[in-house]
Amino acid sequence: MLFRRRKPATLWERIRVAIWPRRSFSRSIRYVVARVLRLTATPHAIAAGIAAGVFTSCTPFIGFHFILSFVVAYLIAGNMVAAAIGTSFGNPFTFPFIWAGAYELGTWILGTESVREKPIHLAQMVHDLDLADIWQPILKPMLVGGAPIGLVFAAAFYVLTYWGVNTFRRRRRLRIAARAASGGRQPRAPGRGHAA
Fold this sequence. Notes:
Blueprint lengths: L10 H9 L5 H13 L5 H15 L7 H11 L4 H7 L8 H16 L11 H7 L2 H51 L15
Helix pairs in contact: 3-4, 3-5, 3-8, 4-5, 6-8
Keywords: Membrane, Transmembrane, Transmembrane helix
Protein name: DUF2062 domain-containing protein
């Protein structure tokens, strides 16, 4: 491999980098944005894919977000790569807020009791793998509350991504046209090359 490390990363180092990037979060975010802007698809397909990923990140079906985002992206003619990137909206930093908001909104919409008012033994339910017992008090309110939250965030990300892709492509076209008008040569930076 061309850029392989001399000393392979340990398991602990790979986990740490997955949670906390080696350089910085801003650099990682810039990389993801650049990756999205350079996708070869229509602005609608890219924006719809991102929106599909963001929407499915607001559902409680963790572990199935990729699959669900591909299904939603297919239904709304979105880009699959963009959908996979959009699922990064749900991450260890945002999940607590998404889940808490979805659960509270879901119990309010359904008019059911919160687990704070009627305690449940979640660890025992998970241990017994009794999905029917987990569905009513936890998953159903999170799904009902997560759908409107997901729609709001998906719509916001759709508009932002659509605008960003169009702006990026328009500026790139202008740069290419300016380069073609100047004969394809970049102007030489002052102070380099031969003295005038």
